[in-house]
Amino acid sequence: MKFNDMPYQRIAYDETVRTLTELEAAIDAAKTPEDALEALKAVDAEAVRVSTMFALAYARSTRDTTDEFYAAEQDFIDEMSPRLSEYTQRLDAALLRSPHRAALEREIGTLFFTQLEIDQRTFSPAVIEDLQEENRLSTEYQKLMASAQIEYDGQTLTLAQLSPYHRDPDRAVRRSSTRARADWLSAQSERLDSLFDELVAVRARIADKLGYPSFVELGYDRMKRAGYTAADVAQFRERVKTRIVPLAARLKAGQAARIGVDRLTHYDDALLFPDGNPKPNGTPEDIFAHGKAMYHALSPETAEFIDFMLENELFDVLTRKGKAGGGYCIDFPAYQCPFIFANFNGTSDDIDVLTHEAGHAFADYQNRGAFPLSLKTPTYEGCEVHSMSMEFFAWPHMDRFFGAGADKYRFMHLASALTFLPYGTMVDEFQHHIYENPGMTPQQRNTLWLELEARYRPWLDNDFPFYGEGRRWQAQPHIYERPFYYIDYCLAQTVALAFWALGQKDPGEAWSRYMRYTSLGGSETFTRLVERADMPSPFGPDALREVAETAAAWLDAHM
Ligand code: ZN
Questions:
Q1: pLDDT mean across residues, the chain
Q2: From ligand 1's centre to the CA of 361, what distance in Å?
Q3: What spacing in Å lies between the alpha carbon of 189 and ligand 1's midpoint?
């Protein structure tokens, strides 16, 4: 179905509460496993209906932020959905106490119930007001960051519009644009500090009311993590320090020499080549024509997928007045359609839309009829494997987009994937400290950040007060809005790099394992999915060493 033809109907609160209550009664009344399965199907149909309408309201309100109808719908959903949680939790409790649980588990596997158990722990009606407060603070951070109006180069720019200047080949431009960004952020320091104080406090309060020792454990549960623990993550971080940081330091030294600076600062960090980072050729229409050809060449499944996406107008990528910033992939399960939203800016980011976001959409499309809905997609680290690996499977086709710059693109992509790991891991370690010690002062947090930078990114010089004071983390939205999300990218990147390394030796085998991984949807935990695809676990002792060695050899040979 075309995006514009998808019918929208508000999820009315009273009516939905009534439906959820009836479904709870139907679960309790089931006399046989067959009855229980029928009831579960009805529960799932309701989940499909609600999540489709929520997603549609979100997509339509971001497509046109001046659309008053969808803005009002989104406000209504933000306010109503925490209240609805009380009834979905009661429904989940009915499923968990069902005498037919074992029979249902034989039908749909055990993970569905494991996730319901996790969900039960993360909510209670006693925290509804705190959750609303947390949402409000998170939205205020978003609005503050989006409100930036920075005078630069004769224009008034947002932070996103300013960012291409930070990669300019001219160091004076990089320096002055980064200075403008840092100064604007410094001017918001007080509000950024107090917003974070309030967020840490409300999260600690929610964790306390729910009976968790700290927000760390609740944060893990909110990510629905099963199959690995905070101790596994801590060990992964240690391996990043010993295996990846030295390689990243070597890459960064090479970058400094290439672009002709004696010491890398924050305003040199993103420039990989002295004549500028590679840019895609052609118009957006050309990029889509290349994307279509690429997915047709890659496999029959991706060919079918890209034709479906294009025929149904499921991309919205051109920047328009009134359109929200950023990019995402979202799914409308009732219409069995994914949807990709982006803002093309003429840099290699545009290609990521067709590789990364399309990797997410491809997995959604492959699993479009999945039952139950909650097993359609894995947890976030599992989903990021879909997208980050697709970026690497697209490598042989980069000549279409970058012409003579394709090798530079591949070099930049691989080097950035490796140097991202220390940064992403550091964000995770920072958050563990913060939520284990919710009483830290703003000054203590900044000091902690500087200590971590010295360990994870020792090559980086801190210029300007914003960076020198250890405030870089305040510009990282996930730290405010999505606690503990960041390590998911690092775990996924490790698996994606393993797919890349295998693809260097045997592209056919790498693709068939990726298809096996993707076709399982969210039917297994992240670690089990990786195992089922015969890929090395990122928590294994050698996973990082192996990808680091293969990547270092490739980068050395291509420089
Ligand atoms: Zn992603």
A1: 95
A2: 10
A3: 29
Residue 328 has pLDDT above 80, yes or no: yes
Q: Is the pTM of this model over 0.85?
A: yes
Q: CA 380, 385, 387: angle at the middle one, nearest 5?
A: 95
Q: What are the pLDDT digits (tens) for 443-473?
A: 999 999 999 999 999 999 988 999 999 999 9
All residues at 6 or more sequence positions from 54 whose CB lies less than 8 Å from its CB, including other chains: 11, 77, 81
What 3-state DSSP class applies to 340? strand
The CA 331 to ligand 1 mean position distance, Å, reads 13
* C-alpha distances out from residue 360 to 20, 198, 366, 380, Å: 30, 33, 10, 11
- Phi and psi for 127 in degrees, rounded to 5? -110, 10
Question: Which structure tokens are listed for 427?
Answer: 């964000």
Domain borders along the chain are 3-133, 223-281+379-559
| C-alpha separations of 417 from 233, 489, 491, 497 in Å | 19, 10, 12, 8
Phi, psi for residue 265 in degrees, rounded to 5? -110, 180
CB count, 10 Å around CB of 460? 19
pLDDT at 151: 95
193-241 confidence digits (pLDDT tens): 999 999 999 999 999 999 999 999 999 999 999 999 999 999 999 999 9
How many Å lie between the centroid of ligand 1 and the Cα of residue 83? Answer: 29
DSSP run (H or E) holding 152: strand 150-152
Q: Ligand 1 centre and the CA of 357: distance in Å?
A: 6
DSSP string for 304-326: HHHHHHHHTT-EE-S--TT--SS
Dist. CA 413–CA 273, nearest whole Å: 13
Tokens at residue 141, please? Answer: 């951070």
Residue 143: half-sphere exposure toward Cβ, Cα within 13 Å: 9
Is residue 384 exposed (0-12), middle (13-18) or buried (19+ Cβ within 10 Å)? buried
Domain boundaries 223-281+379-559, CATH class: mainly alpha
Q: How far is the CA of 358 from the centre of ligand 1 (A)?
A: 9
pLDDT band, residue 82 (cuts 50/70/90): confident
Q: Is 101 exposed, middle or buried (0-12, 13-18, 19+ CB in 10 A)?
A: middle
Q: Which pLDDT band holds residue 139 (cuts at 50, 70, 90)?
A: confident
The rounded Å distance from CA 266 to ligand 1 centre is 24
